[in-house]
Design goal:
The protein has 244 residues and is of the alpha+beta class. Helices cover 54% and strands 15% of the residues.
Amino acid sequence: MLSRPLMETLRSILYNWKLRETGIVNHRMILNSNFLGSTLCSNCVESKIVNGEQFYIIEYEFNKKEDAKDCLCPFDEEHFLIEHTVKHEFVSQAIDISADQLMNSFFDLLFKCDRLTHFLRQKELLTSKDPFALMLEHFLEEERQICEVSNINHNINKRMLQTLHSIKQKRTENRQKLVGLKEKLSLSQLYELINQLKSIPDVKNQINSIKKSRQLKMQANERRVILPLTRSKIFSEFTDSQRY
C-alpha cells in the first residue's frame, strides 16, 4: 500500500523543486488523490500527456477502458497495481521554501524509503526488484516519453529526467551507507519509520483513497446467501453455540 503513495509524493516534491529552481515562487503543484471503483495495472491503464502549465505530465485515464476493469495481469517487475487516482494541479500558492530545502526533502524521503528496502532485504522479504525501483523506472520512462515529443517546451521536464536518471546511483550510495552503518532496525524502529512516512499529508491522503477503493471492491463482491428457514435456524443455533 505504501510504495505508490510514497513515490507519487516524491515526484510531487520533485515537481516543486524544479519549479522553484527555475525561479517560480508564486505557484506550486499540489497532489490530489481519489478512490477507484475498479482495479487496473500500469499496463492496462490508458494515459495521456497533459499541459501542467510550466511543464508536461502524464495522467492516467480510468473511464475509457471498461474492458480492462479488474484486469488479471501479474504484478511483477513490469506491472504494478493502481488502486487510486493521482492528479497534479498547478495552483496560485507560494512555494515558501528554497530549492535547496526541497532538494533535501526529496533525498531525505528517498533515503527513508531505502531504509525500508534495506530492512526487507535483511529479512529476505524481497522476492524480486523492490517496489520503489519499479515505480521510479516507470516515472523515468514517462519523462522520456514527454521529452521525445516535438513542438513543446520541455525544459523543466528535461531537468526532472536528469534527476530521475541520477536516482539509481543515489540509491546505490544509500544502500552502501546503510550496510556501512550496519543498520538493523528493530520492529519498534521499523513501525516508527513507517508511521513517520504514513503521517506525511500527501501519503496519508493517498492511503485513505486506497482504503476507500478496497472497501468499494469488497462491497461490490459481497454476496448474500439466502438459506431455507429450517437450515437458517440450524445455522443460527450452531453459530450461537460457538460463542460459548
